[in-house]
Structures are given as C-alpha cells and as structure tokens.
Amino acid sequence: MQDKKSFDFVRFIKSQMLLVAGIVIFLIFGMIEHSFFTQSNIVNIFRQIAVIAVMGAGMTYAIIGGNFDLSVGSLLSLCGSVIIMSTNKMGPVAAIVFTLFVGCASGVVTGYICGYLHLNSMVATLGMMNVLQALTLLYSGGNFVSLDDPDIWIVKAGQGNIGIIPISVIVMIIFCVIYGIILTRTVYGHNVKAVGTNPMTCKYSGINDNWVVMTTFIMSGLSTAVAAILLATRGGGAQPTMGLGYEFDVITAVILGGADLAGGEGSIYRTFVGALVIGIMKTGFVILGMSVYYQYIAECIIILIAVFLDLRAKGTVRKS
Questions:
Q1: pLDDT value at position 320?
Q2: Which of 13, 65, 182, 299 could make a disulfide contact with 216, Cβ separation 3.0–4.6 Å?
Q3: 90: left (phi over 0), alpha (psi -120 to 50) or beta
C-alpha cells in the first residue's frame, strides 16, 4: 500500500511538471527581487495573463482539432477596435454582442476554408491574419480609438476588482472552466479530440469532421473576441496593432501545456498553467529590467525546448 501511494505521488508530480516549473521560476525571481512576492505583483501577473489564457482556451480547440490559428493576433486588434468604436455608437451591451459576433464570424470564414475547402490551416490563417489586420486599419482609420465616456461601466468593469481579485481574472476563470467542461464532458469535446487524432476514422464513425474543424475555429474566434473586450476595456481604448505578437504567446502557452502538435490531445487546464508560466516569466523579466528583445529570444528558446520535449516524450525525435 505504501509503495502504491509513493508511485501515485511520483506520477502526480510528473503530471504537474509544468506547474512545478512555474513555481520554481516564481521562487527564483522572488529570491532575486523580493518585490516579486508582493500581493500587488501576484495580482498583476494574473491580470496580465487573462488575455493569453482566454485566447489560449480557444487555440487549444484548434490545435486539438489538428490545426493552427495564426490569425488570432490580428483578430484581437480588430475586435479591440470594434468594442471601443461600437460602444461609442451603440452602447456597451450591443457593442459586446457585436464584438462577439465579429469574432465568431471570423472563425466561420477561417473554419470553412480549413474544414470544408481543406486548405492547410497555416496557410489559411496566415492569409486571414493579413486580411483582418487590413480590416482593422480600415475600420479604425489606422488611429488609436478611445471611448467618448471614460467613466462608462464597461471600463470600470475592465479595470475593477471584486475584493482583491480583478474582474478580468474572474471572467478568465469562468471562461476557461466553461471551455474545459465542454472539451472534457461533452460529446462535442470528444469529437474534437477524435477528429484531431484520426479524421478518416471519424468519417466512418458518422462524425462530420468538416463541421467539427470549422467549429474549433469558431471557438477560437469567440475566445479572441472575449479577450479583446478584456484588453480594450482595461485601457479604455485600442491601438489598431494591439494584437501584434499575441498569436505567438498564445500558441506558446498551448504547447507548453502539452497539446499535441499533430492534434488529438490537449487540456484547457494545462494551457492555463502554460499561460501562467509565461506571465511569471514576462513579469520577472520586466522587474529585472531585461530588454524586450532578449525576452523574445528567451520565449523562442522555451517553445523550442517544449516542442523537443513533446516529441521526445512521444518517441518521434530523430536520432543521428
């Protein structure tokens, strides 16, 4: 019995290695700079990762389904401009609904191209990335857009707290829990994993793999729209290029979370932990005064290591 308990504990630790790594990184930064342990800094880390974690939840669906969505950064920019400008014209409630519609509509277009026309997702979403960025520049006139009323409730919600917890963090948690339940506890979630594992088998099993692929991009688009609302309302405005580079952080979080690059495997919880690790590192780099250019290099190295370890664990690393 004791041996079994010991084995279970070891297996649990191995299954939570990313979380353990995040804690170790957090402790290292804290020992270097003691202000890293303050409550305000911890709250700030969670506030900063809200956007990446929410977008990562949607990206997890796309990757589990066997695809990538490189257009999320540009979609974030578009939805950020949409929520601000439409709030000025229609009010916050209608603006939120319209922004969510824009995110889903983008997912429908991309999903149809990948799911029904069977175009490679890397190529399709790379093209959509440029299209969405062009639409953002056209829609905003290439200018920073801000709310006419900076004291409107949507901004207070975006910047506010319930106790010490930011409202954006609460939204992130609720959103990730919902996406996690859909992925693990519904027939649709199992179908997404099945399509990512073997789409040909799904055809013979009666699963509409084209539809499933399209819906994974809709899930990604919806999550990006929610993230844009969180990001834009936190600052009360939006730059037409505010989503630049977010696609890299989001994909890094999903891959760090152990999602299979070939599809079929992934977890919303592990994606969240991956986003948390990225948030800890980014905040630590800033506190230590590291140049943003070195931060990019560090993130690149981290994702390469994560991919290598993922391939090694699956026994697909080619030995020379």
A1: 47
A2: 65
A3: alpha
192 within 8 A of 212, measured Cβ to Cβ: yes
Ordered by start, the domain boundaries in the chain are 41-313
What is the structure's pLDDT at 1?
47
Three-state SS for 161? strand
- Which of 4, 158, 180, 147 shows the shortest CA–CA distance to 81? 147
With beta carbons less than 8 A apart as the criterion, state whether 88 and 240 touch: no
Q: What's the pLDDT at 239?
A: 94
Nearest to 59 by CA among 95, 130, 23, 110: 110
The answer to whether 107 and 95 are in contact (CB under 8 A) is: no
Q: How many CB atoms lie within 10 A of CB 2?
A: 6
Residue 313 exposed, middle or buried by CB count within 10 Å (0-12, 13-18, 19+): exposed
* Cα dist from 141 to 71, 103, 127, 135, 242, whole Å: 20, 20, 21, 10, 14
Check whether 156 has a pLDDT greater than 60: yes
Nearest in space to 72 (alpha carbons), one of 107, 37, 117: 107
Integer Cα distance of 74 and 136 in angstroms: 8
Query: Mean pLDDT over residues 47-71, rounded?
Result: 96
The 3-state DSSP composition of the chain as helix, strand, coil percent (nearest 5) reads 75, 0, 20
Please tell me the distance from the alpha carbon of residue 53 to that of residue 243, in angstroms, as a whole number.
14
Residue type, 154: I
54, 259, 78, 56: which is closest to 171 by C-alpha?
54
Task: Read off the tokens for 95.
Answer: 């603006």
Tokens in use for 17? 């290695």
- pLDDT tens-digit map of 177-227: 999 999 999 999 999 999 999 888 887 888 999 999 999 999 999 999 999
Domain 41-313: CATH class, spelled out: mainly alpha
